[in-house]
Amino acid sequence: MVFSSNIFLLFFLPVFFLCYFITPVRYRNYPLLLFSIIFYSYGAPDFVLILLLATVLNFYIVKAMLKATTEKKKKLFCALSVVVSLSLLLYYKYANFFVENINAFLHVCNHSSISWRPVLLPIGISFFTFQSITYTIDMYRATAKPNEKLTDYVLYIIMFPQLIAGPIVRYNTVAEELVSRKYVTTQQLAGAYRFIIGLSKKVLISNTLAKIADEAFTMNVSELSTPTAWIGMLAYTLQIYFDFSGYSDMAIGLGRIMGFHFPENFDNPYTSKSISEFWRRWHITLGAFMREYLYIPLGGNRVSKRRTYLNLWIVFLLSGFWHGASYNFILWGAFHGFFLVLDRLFMLDFLKRIGKIPAVILTFFVVNLGWVLFRADGLSNALGFYQALFHFSGALQISLDGESICTLIVALILSFITLAKFGEKMCNTLYAEVYTTKQSIMLFIFIVLLLVLSVGSLSVSDFNPFIYFRF
């Protein structure tokens, strides 16, 4: 089940809110936990029991870690908990990749391949793996108080708003709210608005752009024209932003309605003036996780320059591999790691000298090139797509209708609108929690219109791609 579906919007969500808000405040975690299990079971019924068992096991391993009498035992239990979490991720997400590569090597050596039944990837496995790791390490570091109730811990891991697409929520940011939450009407209303804005970004913009991107990226790359490649690349660049940020908006909005304050995950990333800035604005919670639990433990920038550059490469290679089990994602991580190193060597100074707008344009161009690796099906297709971008021949092979052209233009405007002061002011108003009477009336009308258009679009079209199946 995904947020941008009528079964979620018209059936699951109304029934959940009814049950949630008629339940006394002190017991509201129980319906939230029950509906979270139902939500996940709908999409991954074969995996939900394994997820619950692993979560319960981790809870008691961490409890044993906290009771350990020696530092050696404490480290042992900490490592065991992390291994339990990572073992599920490694098996379900990367087993097929490793077996395929072993079989390819065996084929070269004229040996018979390993018989293997492909493993199906459970949705959201990376997100709940990372959250279980943050709990374990935060408990080991004593940066938060341990959760005494098993049901509250399971709820933290499997809570449906952020389960399938993030943001990655560190335990210490919601520890108190798991036990006691405040319900402020203005914040709940702002949360509802945030959810609908995210829904419209996904349904009205991302889904339309996905049709353009899919058409370009599924063509034979040897026949792909340059205009088609550029339009396809741009469409996917905008699609993934409005899709991913839309899901984050929906998760944050749902959490706010229920009294939770989930961290922000996007901050107008395409207005960045460097790749370093882009990664402070794109998938913020993943960046924070990688920095806190990998980059800093490796030494961060407290070591020599060469070691700092190596640390950046390691972090982004693993970040790329986290996004998907293929060489495309590994190269995508290496691609961004390369530009982050360039930033530290000389690029930041160069970008400052050329001015704000040229720096934004150049950074956006680099990010676009990176998304080709992210979207293309295999390395050969990615290379063919790059060739099509720069051989400057052929006519546009995609039939763009009025809706597609308008959506592309609107998506571009919204991606860069905060570069202007009026755009920044408009966005601050949309995401505010307190409104004037005039703002409330206008925003209410605007939000209702977006909701009607989004539900209507979902009702008349079956095209609703789910990018996060690989994550």
Quick recap of the structure?
The chain is 72% helix and 0% strand. The protein has 2 domains: 24-181, no CATH class; 187-273 and 355-470, no CATH class.
Protein architecture, described:
It is a single chain. The protein has 471 residues and is mostly helical. It folds into two domains: 24-181, no CATH class; 187-273 and 355-470, no CATH class. Helices cover 72% and strands 0% of the residues. The protein has helices spanning 6-22, 29-43, 48-67, 71-108, 125-141, 150-158, 171-179, 185-217, 226-257, 275-281, 284-295, 305-323, 327-354, 356-375, 379-390, 402-416, 421-430, 437-460. It is globular, with a radius of gyration of 23 Å.
Q: Beta-strand level of the residues, as a percent range? A: under 5%
Average predicted confidence as pLDDT: 91
Say how many strands there are: 0
The total number of structural domains is 2
**Helix content estimate:** over 70%
Helix and strand pattern: HHHHHHHHHHHHHHHHHH
Rg for CA atoms = 23 Å
Instruction: Characterize the largest beta sheet: strand count, sense, and whether it forms a barrel.
Output: none
Low-pLDDT segments, ≥5 res: none
Q: Please state the structural category.
A: mainly alpha
Shape: globular
Instruction: Note the gap between the termini.
Output: 15 Å
Number of helices: 18
